[in-house]
């Protein structure tokens, strides 16, 4: 192992608390994941379910849809039976059923009446909006990453930088970083997709099922290892891109080669970061859970005396906001710490780094 | 050297609210227009048109329009009414690229930590929020805010009035729609339900 893990963790901790402006970009990187419009929610699932129910039940309604001939015939029948039908309305079960059917029919009628080009227009507008938001989201995330890497680098060299300096230093690399991110994601995903494809094909050809299945399985395992290497390469490539001012291709190759050469260092740091993240999550749960239980018990207890309830709910809301702010700050700090570890690792692997403590000692000695 | 009057937090809040309420009033007007042209058969079509309008105008067009206004005139509509100007620290106008960066990229920084970045206006000598610091801009006060405040009051009142009109129109449409469907359902399904 070339890197000094203890030194990296110590330095990263110092950098995290030395310059609080880094936290702002750290917080942006936590929020970066929220620029995701593809996640399915229960709401949409319920909507689909509801729509399915509507479409099924409409066809269960007798007489719907009806033709013009049926309509003329029905007019006659209706005249004859209007008295009976009025009597039936008095029956509660019948009224409820009609009301429910009315709503279903009304929705379906209104939907079927919408011209097709309205839907096309809505689809286009939605796609355009989505495209714009994704582009903005990608840019914000890349810019924040670049600014953070530059900020960490400067802080590690005892240069104090603010928001403006970090942003200005990071901005020129943001577009290249987007390219690197897209390329590395595709490079990691394509082999896995191919492996799955081979495995699917193996089922279609009975004579080659075992052979192709085995090839697909081996390829899948190899793809996962390759994916790990690509992601490690991308992490180091990002740092190489920002600190070295390289183009995305050159930076990726550099990062990939470094990750390949020092795979043990990279994997160990990745595991350590994962463990710290896990610890952070466990601590968060340990802090949040008693507070939430306390709030629920407090509200339940205070509900007996209405004026007290108002006070307890107000305090509860304030505590809730406080918790969110606290965890945003803690998440931001962790984000900075994690990025610092990678920056310091890259610097140790590519050039020997001297600890600030050692620097200070040397200065004192002189 | 020219003595600049930097805009206070309150003035910027008024300008921001103005921008928001201009969009709300526009949205309410479009909504009422579509409601009034709705009948029992095309109301969902009109809802779709309204969502399309929100996505296109409020979501996409305003992004470019605001950037254009900032680079051409020095501020969004709200800021211009309130007599505020956005400019570079050296006093020059922002380019469209700079304006997009300030309005839609740098502002995300001010919004993290529950909008803490905006409260930096109280702290810095040039009354800069985090997004101003990042994009090297300042917001300068050119004249009194009174026109902005009056416009905001007027817009809020107009919005409340339009909301009441919209709710009343929607309620009328819903009543007429339910009545019409009820008749249709009774008419179509009763003969069969009897047997």
TrEMBL record, chain A:
Signal sequence coordinates: none
Keywords associated with the record: Membrane, Transmembrane, Transmembrane helix
Source superkingdom: Bacteria
Membrane spanning stretches: 21-39, 117-140, 180-205, 211-237, 266-296, 308-337
Keyword Membrane appears in the UniProt entry: yes
This protein's name: Glycerophosphoryl diester phosphodiesterase membrane domain-containing protein
